[in-house]
Amino acid sequence: MNRKNEPTDYTLFDYGFITFDDDGKKVYNLYEGNSLRIVYNTDFQKENFDEIRLIKKDLVCPHCHARMVKNGSYKFKYNKMIFIRISGYKCCNTNHTHYVYASKLKDVDKFCSFDREIRKLGVKLSLIDFLSYDKLSELLEALTGVNVNRETMFYFTDDSIDEILEEIQKEQELEIIKLNIKPSGHYGYEEQYIFIKKTII
Question: Taking phi first (over 0 means left), then psi (-120 to 50 degrees means alpha), and beta for anything else, what does residue 145 get?
């Protein structure tokens, strides 16, 4: 039975479609613009795909609007765990050919392998308590199953802490407005005293 590029009736949340290569390899073709986090979905895992490909849905060149055809690919290791093949394309413009790849920027920042939500969670964990980067890595792996080494945890925190704090502040301000909390005008803070031989330092 020839199943080459024969789509099945089953689609995963309308995110893409399933095909079979010449050698019978089961491939999930994920349309760009959708979340790569679908690969952690239980239904997705049950399918046991041999390969995941990120593809363009609209095969029109963004530069000259000519028709595009497939042209190579490269492999990307999502969250340093799952290989995803990023499909490449070239346009059929005879005057000036453009080359593009399907975009992985929905979840993943440029020059980064880790999901943006994983990075944010790593930073938020560091705000809970003063923990070593090794401990933060262990916590993150326990919560998500994604293994991040201590150097990468340091980079996440160093690179994103200001952005995350601003995000948390905005969330709190919106919550104050939503709950209609009116400040009294009186503010207090808790101060910790250190005593050495009954003398406050």
Answer: left
